[in-house]
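ERR on first pass: missing label on line 2. Operator R.T. fixed the label and resubmitted. Corrected input:
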Amino acid sequence: MNLRAVKGMNDFLPADARQARRVEEAFRRTMERAGFGEVRTPIVEGTGLFVRTIGEGTDVVDKEMYTFLRHEESLTLRPEGTAGAARAYLEHKVHTTEPVTKWFYAGPMFRAERPQRGRYRQFHQVGAEIYGDLGPACDAELISLIVDFLADLRIADAVVHVNSLGGPEARLRYREALVAYLTPHAEKLTPESQRRLLTNPLRILDSKAKADQELIADAPRISDILDGDDAAHFQGLVKYLAALGVDVVHDPLLVRGLDYYGRTLFEVKAAKDILGAGATVVGGGRYDTMVSDLGGPATPAIGFAAGLERLVLALGDSNATDANLPVYICALGEAAIAPCLGLGRDLRRAGITCEVDARGLSLKGQLRRANARAARLALVIGEGELERGVVQIKDMSAHEHLDVPADSIIASVVERLAQRQS
Ligand code: HAM
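pass 2 clean. output:
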């Protein structure tokens, strides 16, 4: 029997979970401050939702979904959060109660990709969606929130890439121009790109293969095709980003792996040495036709998602977590156990994090554990302390110790911890 975790799916032991929580809390702070509310949708949705929104011909739908039959219904573990959020928006008729809706979410997503560093089969995203605002000011503000979020995490040297795909018409014209340009050279493309030329030609721009890259270098640019409202929208985005002081790179070859995008597109790439070449930590864009494609009213929308595991990798050591424990309580002998348990409870009630050691070890053994936990103070109660009505406080880094009357121990610990912090 195989008792290992499923390939590409990871456990988060406490140190990893602490990092993940740090990222989620920073995200929550950023989004709530900007008026976003949290939405929680199911991890499982009907398969058709993803096929209709993400689109056939995309890697996600064609190759990566975890799909299964249950009660004759085809269900899929969500590969991303945008489709489920749009489904919930529509199902609860949110558009009838508010003209603009701002949601954020965090949770696990599933894609059967080839696992490697930063790419997993169960991974986590933090993401946000805005419904009911055509932009481009809204697009610029959303991108600036991402920049603030990364700054809050102290992830420096991340670069924002933006592009516009234009609306459905411009996208069609661009598709035609690209096919017209690539078809005469089709035999020089990789087999994968030759296949895409027929199914999803824009995705060829994303190819990392050298043969494809050489052809792509001279391919027509979507920016040459944008006109009218599409061009004005992109100019607006650039203007508002500049007004907000957000530095971006215009990447006219940026396309994304999901089919629902139109107009604004963006990705944030982390420093190369952290994740390997071109690792993308955030991806997003506008998808103004999704809600109506799902049967709802015409509703412009934009959003993004960030890969939590990739953000944690990008944090590197710069945000080494302070896993240390303020107080470690050592019980010496059976008679000290109950007073130590009570002391632990009282300290926690006073808001102080502490652990009680009631394993019956020698003081040396217990202090070894206090050191391993990087405790700032060890509180020791043994027979002698019980007789004298005191608790011994050991300052673990100053290597000092003193006895404090048991009835003033809480105040004394609070005071010492405050002193050490300042
Ligand atoms: P996406 O680009 O497919 O977009 O994913 C967003 C982010 O999720 C990626 O930039 C990456 O950090 C992370 N990610 C994706 N796949 C994996 C994986 N296999 N392992 C680890 N991390 C991964 C979306 O999902 C869209 N729903 C974003 C969006 C929201 N667009 C509009 N609204």
